[in-house]
Amino acid sequence: MSAVLRWLVAMGLALVASAVGAHGEKAQMPQLRMSTVHWFDLEVSTTKLSVNDEIVVRGRFMPSMHWPHHVESIEDTAFLNIGVPGPAFVRLESRVNGVPMIRSTRFFRGETYEFMIRMKARKPGRYHVHPLINVKGTGPIIGPGRWIEVGGDPAAFELKAKTLLGREIDLESYGFANVLGWSAFWFLLGLSWFVYWLWKCPIVIPRFKQRDELGVDADRMITRTDRRTGLIYLAVTLCAIVGGYQYAQASYPITTPLQTGRVDVPPADPGPRVVTATMVEARYRIPGRSFRIEMEVTNHGDKALSIGEMAAGNLRFINAAVKPVQPADEDDLVAVDSLRVENAPIPPGETRTVVIYADDALWETQRMTTMIKSPDANVAALLFFYDTDGRRHHVEIGGPMIPVFG
Amino acid sequence: MAEDSAPPPASPSTQSGVANLAEQRRAYIQFDMLVIPLIVLLFMGIFSFHFALLVGDWDYWVDWRDRRWWPLVTPLCLAVLPGVFGYLLWERLRLPLAGTLTILCLTVASWISRYLNFYLFADFPMNMVWPSTYVALGLIFDCILLLSRSFFWTGLAGGFLFGLLVYPLNWPLLAPYMVPVELHGTMLTVADLQGYEYVRTAIPEYVRKIEQSTLRTFGEAVTPLTAVFAGFVNILNTWLWMWVGYLGAKAVWIRKIT
Ligand SMILES: [Cu+2]
User: Fold this and answer.
1) Contact A280, A352 (CB under 8 A)
2) What is the C-alpha separation between A186 and B170, in angstroms, rounded?
3) What angle do CA B234, B235, B241 make, to 5 degrees?
4) Interface test with A, best of B23, B201, B215, B258 (most A CBs within 10 A)
5) Alpha helices, DSSP H only, in A21-132?
6) Which helix (H) or strand (E) holds A115?
7) B20/A contact by beta carbon, under 8 A
8) What pLDDT does A360 receive?
9) By three-state DSSP, how is residue A259 classified?
10) In Å, how far from its chain's centre is CA A74?
11) What pLDDT, on a 0 to 100 scale, did the predictor assign at position A25?
């Protein structure tokens, strides 16, 4: 049941995505986008490539400490994935903190992870590519997207592999001729059985009547030829199954079961904790599309700290005075100069109340404002502090949100 | 038509050229030509829907065809239509045809769907999304019904073989995909590799309902144990669906056709 539903949803998404030209990223509820996974430092090795060329998507993510309790946790089962429309790319390699992500794993809240996905272009087109994490029971948590253009000839695509027995195989076609041959053999054998009975045409009404008239003797409708044919078909079928099985065993003496089971990813060393921040109050002014967050920040380090960026739900609000950031493409959700910070920088060793304002239409256009219609109006965001040497420290804040209507 | 009750071959054409008979035969043929294609379309529709609903991903993807769940789920779902229509066609027409015919219809529908939806539309290579073959199971079911002329024995022997043989029947198709490969220090089967490399955004790895390793000491015996277990369960399953066919045959609307 769920399989079909999932397939329908996938097909639906693919259709919508190809029709709109982009993304399902706005579809998820804002507080889910904000308080599940914080993605940052997304980088793509190229934005234009040809079929058979490789591309590396890399970046970092941090599962939120404010992960909603009613949603199944990323600490149970998760899988690093990539959002592309079908196999427009094939994935050659994916790693988190250096561990291959071929199988499923789990990630811990509050830890920072570094991911990389290496792919090879398969179908020409223009794709909005997102890293994402599928979380069991929750669904895909989509990261930021980048437009990638693939040119070239799809027929030229090649994907090879080498088995552990030393045989080189072409993954685009491997085994299919064999499948087709066996399928055709069985189909034709079955079809001939159908034709055998169809040959007695007309069969429906005459046999129905005859069966009715014969009553308990109806088995007399089956002739000796029928029985002999049945015996032959049964024998041929059983022999072909046994023979086919033996043949396969002889041709492929070494096989293994499908491989599954989870792998573990050790979290990266976070280093010394330089800054802590606690949210005191978050108010969203609807008419001004303005977020005001009051928080208490402690600088444990030995250099003054400024706030350069606040990232929430894949939106980036930049304080250009500290560190300017330009959007990578037309759908990169960066509000270039939208973060105002009061009462900063924070001198070393001090604890202060800092107020930040994130004002931008992105709140509206990315449908983050629908959070006031949700049953749990919470926010979470990642703050990027920069010290006087330009060293970056990230800290998550989160808590309840209060809308301001006037 | 009373004299027709002689044992077949029931070919009335030798009855001397009575115009009526020839005309009647033509009408019967026309009826067949109308009804049989309709039945085929009906079987294609019901069976592929029912199969997609219950077996779904196990039959869609080569990296879902494991040793434990796929050979168990498949025969249980596969025996439904052969059971019901096997009863009906035998009971009403003495035709041992439903097993093969329904599965042929499923096969055609599956191949069309894989080719159009999975290959042309979604761009997956055919060697990753081919449908398994089950026609042989239908043949066994029909032949046993024909030879035993008994629903009891058909359920017992046919149902059992149905469950037992799903895996060996498909092994010649599947074995090449179960050859081990290595990727970044991890051993995989070719099928796993396809599942990993051809990205499925909506179907993450953990979604696969496949055999996990256990502490029980089945070891090598997973496949035969599953097959025998599937066979036994499928005996009851087949009888159940034949009984549903029996209920259907008793239904008034079928009698009204006469
Ligand atoms: Cu997108």
Assistant:
1) no
2) 11
3) 80
4) B201
5) 30-34
6) strand A113-121
7) no
8) 82
9) coil
10) 13
11) 66
State yes or no: pLDDT of B8 exceeds 50. Answer: no
Rounded to an integer, what distance in angstroms lies between the CA atom of residue A236 and that of residue A111? Answer: 62
Q: How far is residue B211's CA from residue A258's CA, in Å, rounded to a whole number?
A: 8
Strands (DSSP E) found in A159-199: 160-162, 168-170
Name the residue among A87, A223, A258 with its Cβ closest to that of B210.
A258
pTM, to two decimals: 0.86
Residue type, A250: A
- Provide φ and ψ at A170, rounded to 5°: -100, 110
Give tens-digit pLDDT for B237-255: 999 999 998 888 777 555 5
**CA-CA-CA-CA torsion for A264, A138, B61, A131, nearest 10 degrees?**
-70
Q: If you ran DSSP here, which 8-state letter would residue B2 be given?
A: G
DSSP H/E element including B245: helix B222-250
Give residue for tokens 């001397």: B16
- Closest Cα partner for B43 from B95, B109, B87? B109
CB A219 within 8 A of CB B126: no
3-class secondary structure, B150:
coil
B18, exposed or middle or buried, with CB in 10 Å at 0-12, 13-18, 19+? Answer: exposed
Choose among B93, B144, B194: nearest Cβ to A211: B93
CA dihedral B194, B195, B200, B205 (to 10 degrees): -160
Query: Looking at the DSSP assignment, which residues form a beta bridge with residue A355?
Result: A294, A342
Instruction: Give A392 to chain B, closest Cα distance, Å.
Output: 32
Alpha helices in A131-175 (DSSP H): none
The domains found in chain B, sorted by start residue, are 28-257 (1.20.1450.10)
CA distances from A239 to A233, B106, B154, B157 (A): 10, 23, 19, 16
Q: Which residue spans within A245-304 are E strands per DSSP?
A: 275-285, 290-299
Distance CA B156, CA B231 (A): 9
Instruction: Determine, for residues B29 and A93 on separate chains, whether the beta-carbon distance falls below 8 Å.
Output: no
Burial A245-280 (b: 16+ CB within 10 A, else e): beebeeebeebebbbbeeeebeeeeeeeebbebebe
Residue B16 has pLDDT above 80, yes or no: no
Distance A19 CA to ligand 1 centre (A): 12
For residue B189, give both structure tokens.
């089967």
> Omega into A202 within 30° of 0, i.e. cis?
yes
Kindly list the averaged pLDDT for each block of 10 residues, start to end, along chain A of length 406.
50 44 64 88 94 95 91 92 89 94 93 95 93 90 92 93 92 94 96 92 84 82 90 95 95 90 86 89 84 91 91 88 85 85 88 90 77 78 91 91 82
Q: Which residues contact A253 (CB under 8 A, 6 or more apart)?
A: none
CA terminus-to-terminus distance, chain A: 48
B150 Cβ contact list (under 8 Å, min separation 6): none
